[in-house]
Specification:
By secondary structure, the protein is mainly alpha-helical. It has a single domain, classed as Up-down Bundle (Four Helix Bundle (Hemerythrin (Met), subunit A)). Helix content is about 80%, strand content about 0%. It has helices spanning about 5-25, 30-35, 35-65, 75-80, 85-105, 110-135. The radius of gyration is 15 Å and the shape is globular. The model has no long low-confidence stretch (mean pLDDT about 95).
Length: about 140
């Protein structure tokens, strides 16, 4: 059985992270790039948001006895295979899992313009998956 408390706790944190990321979008790209507080907050909360979504997905996979993922990128793929999410969202989230790795491992070479554009164009994907997860509990 899905531990609703585990998912609810992560969804609560995720909601705060996404709200903060959305607030970052009030700034234009130039301000985003020049202010380390703004882009640092965005980078960290983006990382935490992706991490929450992957953790919840992994929890669902384990609970339901789906095949075990060997990489973060497999989590959305497995959820799509099992009909939990659509293939299009899975493809987008696989890309976000890859970007999580960049945030964690290649942070010294981050292109701040790409981070800003990714947030602007893909924040809705994170919110969409969060809503799907919320409807499962």
């Amino acid at each position: 059985m899905v531990r609703k408390d585990v998912i609810a706790l992560r969804l609560g944190k995720l909601s705060n992270y996404l709200q903060t990321i959305r607030a970052v979008l009030r700034y234009d790209l130039d301000r985003f790039k020049e202010d380390p507080f703004i882009h640092g907050t965005a980078e960290r909360y983006l990382h935490l948001s992706i991490e929450c979504l992957l953790d919840i997905g992994n929890h669902l996979i384990a609970d339901r006895g789906y095949r075990k993922p060997t990489t973060y990128g497999e989590i959305p793929k497995i959820l799509a295979e099992e009909g939990v999410i659509g293939q299009d969202l899975a493809d987008r989230m696989t890309g976000m899992a890859a970007f999580r790795n960049i945030l964690v491992h290649d942070y010294l070479e981050l292109d701040l313009a790409k981070v800003y554009i990714l947030i602007k164009e893909r924040l809705g994907d994170l919110e969409e998956l969060a809503a799907i997860y919320a409807n499962l509990i």
